[in-house]
């Protein structure tokens, strides 16, 4: 009796558990479908938000970076311009101060040399002219007086006539020599007065 009843009870128990098993399977399927849909929606939304955040970040970065780059470029340009202007002003002031201190010294030296040379040459030429005139006049007067005295005292009438012809010739030669000496001294003075400034300008330019 006991052996015949136990299989029937076991089978009935199995059939009684089958609806619960089917419900559990259905629930698991629905849960898996729901979870997959939820996860897909959540992940899609999170990816969407992430893409939005990334796009905002990239747009902000790309908007800031060129501005920073342009600012750095403008700053470098302004700094280079400022430094070039400052250096040019400083160098010009330095050159101006140096030249303002050194040029008067050189100009005074060159002017003193020029004036000394020019004055010495002019004084030499004037002295040479006056001395030549004085010596020629003195020699002509002395020779004439000496010859006139000697002619009247020692020479005869014929020699006096001869000397009277010779003396004008001699005096004319003497005056010609005086004139030539004056012309030569004037030519030397004109030549020196024209050539010395040229040589001085060449020397000053060197």
Overview of the molecule:
- The structure is a single chain.
- The protein is mainly alpha-helical.
- It has one domain.
- 98% of the residues lie in helices and 0% in strands.
- The protein has two helices and no strands.
- The longest helix is centred in the middle third of the chain and has 153 residues, at 2-154.
- It starts with a helix and ends with a helix.
- Residues 1-5 have low confidence and may be disordered.
Question: How would you briefly describe this protein structure?
Answer:
It is built from 2 helices and no strands. It has helices at residues 2-154, 157-205. Helix 1 (2-154) runs antiparallel to helix 2.
Number of domain modules: 1
Radius of gyration: 65 Å
Average pLDDT, rounded to a whole number, is 68
Q: Helical content, roughly?
A: over 70%
Structural class designation: mainly alpha
Would you identify the regions where 5 or more consecutive residues have pLDDT less than 50? Answer: 1-5
Shape: rod-shaped
Total count of strands: 0
Largest sheet report:
none
Span between N and C termini?
149 Å
Number of H- or I-type helical stretches: 2
Spell out the helices and strands N to C. Answer: HH
Transmembrane segments: 20-40, 47-65, 71-96, 103-121, 127-147, 167-191
Keywords: Membrane, Transmembrane, Transmembrane helix
Features:
206 residues, 98% helix, rod-shaped, disordered N terminus
